[in-house]
Amino acid sequence: MLILECPYCGVKAEETELHGGGQAHIKRETVGSDDDAFEHYLFTRANPRGVHLERWRHANGCGKWFHAARDTTTLEVFGTYPAQTFEPPKDIIDAITAKRPDWSFKNWQGAT
Amino acid sequence: MSNAVSALQGATSEGFATITEAGLRGMITLRGDLSSAKLKKAVKSTAGVDVPAQRACNSAGDKAVAWMSPDELLVMVPYADVVDATTRIAKALEGEHALAVNVSDARAVFTIEGAGAREVLAKLSPVDLSREAFTTGMFRRTRLAQAAVAFWMRDETTFELVCFRSEAQYVFDVLSMSARTGSEVGFL
């Protein structure tokens, strides 16, 4: 069972209270973007084996979207953080690199 | 004017805890900046209590204010006063980025009373309801089996629970089943 702490209401919510929202930190293309960029935005998603940054919604709770950093193979959770950011905060990056020294946000599959 | 009725019109069910549909309750969804002085004042003058802390419910008599999310409160007043109270809050918050809506008729309220009240909810929600973890005045939005609900503890043996009106029958049935005599777990 996956347990994530909602950064908005502080609830340690288990999976059934949450709704997954896929990859986090997607660059949203808009008017003026070329076709390739649009295709990438609409259809291409990272699916790393290891550290992943994801969006989650506390659906049966405060209803807010937040981001979570976790490992897709071990299900280890490094932390959660509010969604109003373009990149993970320092404490999350520190928590990840403490366990996975080679990991960096720049080299993460989902980085744009 | 039409005669307002609550979802299940006071249905009750006896088990190792008593489930009661609590009848009509005035409820106002208030969204806005919870740190704003104007909002704090409006809440205090309407419900007689302060803006609650995260995941708490402040109550006094038949009024209460519950923390729903970082920008949302649930203000509870007697049903007869709710239209006035909504107008007053909206007026007090004029010029602020805020919203007050009367949701009384879109919700149902239940009380779960008895020594086993904790257990009735613990069977249905992914919430730690042990005596140490969940105490009087705490408020929690979560799910009850398949329905989205919010509940809080009024005192050691009484919980109040709100859900969508359309799900009232389901919530009543599932609470009654959880409280069926002989199904006590005795863990909490």
CATH architecture of chain A: 2-Layer Sandwich
Query: What structural class do you assign from the helix and strand content of chain A?
Result: alpha+beta
Q: What count of domains describes the coordinates of chain A?
A: 1
Decide which structural class fits the backbone of chain B. alpha+beta
Quaternary organisation of the protein chains:
heterodimer
Beta strand count of chain B: 11
Largest sheet of chain A: 4 strands, antiparallel
| CATH topology term of chain A | Folate-binding fold
Name of the top-level CATH class of chain A? Alpha Beta
Low-confidence stretches of chain A: none
Question: How many E strands of chain A?
Answer: 6
Main β-sheet of chain B, in a few words? Answer: 6 strands, antiparallel
Organism (chain B): Litoreibacter meonggei
Protein name (chain B): Sarcosine oxidase subunit gamma
InterPro entries (chain B): SoxG (IPR007375), TrmE/GcvT-like (IPR027266)
Pfam family, one (chain B): SoxG
Short characterization:
With 112 residues, chain A is of the alpha+beta class.
Topology:
The complex is a heterodimer of chains A (112) and B (188).
Chain A: E1 3-5, E2 12-14, E3 19-23, H1 35-43, E4 51-57, E5 65-71, E6 77-82, H2 90-99
Antiparallel strand pairs in A: 1-2, 3-4, 4-5, 5-6
Chain B: E1 12-14, E2 18-21, E3 26-31, H1 37-47, E4 57-60, E5 63-69, E6 72-77, H2 82-92, E7 99-102, E8 107-113, H3 117-122, E9 139-144, E10 147-155, E11 158-164, H4 168-178
Helix pairs in contact in B: 1-2
Fill in the keyword field for this structure.
heterodimer, A: 112 residues, alpha+beta, Folate-binding fold, two-stranded antiparallel sheet, 17% helix, globular, B: 188 residues, Gyrase A, domain 2, six-stranded antiparallel sheet, five-stranded antiparallel sheet, 4 helices, SoxG (chain B), Sarcosine oxidase subunit gamma (chain B), TrmE/GcvT-like (chain B), SoxD_sf (chain A)
